[in-house]
């Protein structure tokens, strides 16, 4: 596929998703620039005084976001970053300097290993090791028995590429304790930490309090434009600010991103538990719908979901499933699935998609989902005959 073909395909997808009347979640990328700016302008006054001066290099409204995050997570301090990739690389670099050990233990499906082009080693000079390759976070036993030393243990909560999976609270406590026994510090990749509360059964301060530092995102679940925060001890955060400058992350003005972060914390954060609860309804209905269909087999992972996001696996090529998903959106106005691919943990011949349930998805009943599955399977059969 050429770049032009790819652009046309993206335009087709965005047009179909935007026009659809029924979706399980409405992604911010499906709006126009004008709509996004208008929405931000309409809501920003509710979370910050718009007569305040614009921010410069992290003061003003950016500082307010930092204070709010530290308050929510119960940490001494927090620093705003333009990207989570930068925040997390800097956190691990700072811990390596403090522990004297540049080895980071993490899952091979974690974000730094899969989505950052080897930046931990290429940019930070760090080395990574994997206590487990199972599609879940490591156990305390695996941490204790791992044959190599490491200075930092990174835990991605939830582990996205394994299906947004989480351990139980006691298991998480045990893993952290095992790392402490090895004199390692613990860092939480909490890009989606906000929605972990229902499954873990603990509040954000107690979850964040397990670790020495935590990173959170403002756009993945909260609907912000961009941006992230690194939270933890004041001394660590101060050092991270220095490295943020060195990495080119001291942006002159960031008030659009900061305002959207405050809006997400104010409006979306309180609603996440309802999304998590309804994701279980949607996932159960998907499993039932596929079980009653002509599809040879299917998998919802995990079932039930641990957060408001989960995976669905089907034994078809991604091209067939992507086309079937698009035709369903275009011809019926219902978006059940978006993009399919050969996932990092799926076997050959199987495609995977991520399902997110947010405000729009609360309107779907189990019956709605099963009907949409039946409809989707029909499109799969039609497209499959064309290929």
TrEMBL record:
Q: State the source organism's domain of life.
A: Bacteria
Which InterPro entries does the annotation name? ArAA_b-elim_lyase/Thr_aldolase, PyrdxlP-dep_Trfase, PyrdxlP-dep_Trfase_major, PyrdxlP-dep_Trfase_small
> Which SUPFAM superfamilies does this entry report, sorted A to Z?
PLP-dependent transferases
* Single GO molecular function: L-allo-threonine aldolase activity
Q: Name one GO cellular component term.
A: cytosol
User: Which terms under GO biological process does the entry name?
Assistant: glycine biosynthetic process; L-threonine catabolic process
Residue limits of the Aromatic amino acid beta-eliminating lyase/threonine aldolase domain?
A: 58-287
Q: Which cofactors is this protein said to need?
A: pyridoxal 5'-phosphate
Give the keywords, sorted: Pyridoxal phosphate
By sequence similarity, the record places it as follows: Belongs to the threonine aldolase family.
Name this protein carries in UniProt: Threonine aldolase
